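Sample entry (109 residues):
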Amino acid sequence: MTTTYEWAIETVTADDSEDILDVDHRDRLHEWPAERLLHALNQDREPAGAFMKNDPGTFTRLALVRDSDRDGRAWAYIGDDGALPAKMLDAYDRPVCDVPKRYREEFMR
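Predicted structure, serialized as tokens:
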């Protein structure tokens, strides 16, 4: 059984749908430039049309993504408070597993 983890910065529409327009994956947080990572942690908003024509405005957010042969995909999105949640959730917001200690430690550095 295989389980993998990766960090992701998602570019998302700033409307009720929060459609994901782009995803940038990395194995380690330090692989992103500091400014890009800070932008995602703060969920900074961009004005309408800045990402693509006719978009309602966008923001970026950071998540830890887990892929498992057994459980499928799960996410731990950094909250508005800047904290990494304790649990990873599936697409239906059901808890799947705890965030592994090594990723909590990496996030706290």
